[in-house]
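In the current project phase, the collection of sequences with tokenised folds has grown. A representative record is quoted in full directly below:
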Amino acid sequence: MDVLIVQSAPELGFVWQRHLQRCGMSVRVSESQDEAIDAIIHKVPDVIVLDLVLKSGSALAVADYANYRCPGTQVIFVTNTRFFSDGSIFAHAGNACAFVQTATPPEDLAAMVEHYAVAR
């Protein structure tokens, strides 16, 4: 199971990466839109864990590119803001499968990743 984490905060991306690796997943971390697109070009992930607010680039651009390049890949959006709290992210990103808070426990995030990777 291959997972791409796109998270501008390296320490948080590292925590998620280590937890998912302990669950037996292959995990790559990107910190920007450009890094994420490059990662998708080189290896199609089963699931993308994507922070809605990136310091460099646009999360929606990453999701849109993934939807075009690898339409079977599901995107779990994470955020610590109120953007799209009404659920409208599902109307903007056709590959969005979940929308959770950044503070979601890593074990819960891992369960979601596993669920959506298997459903792929």
Observations:
- The chain has a mean pLDDT of 91.
- Helices lie at 10-22, 33-42, 59-69, 89-92, 106-119.
- The chain has five helices and five strands.
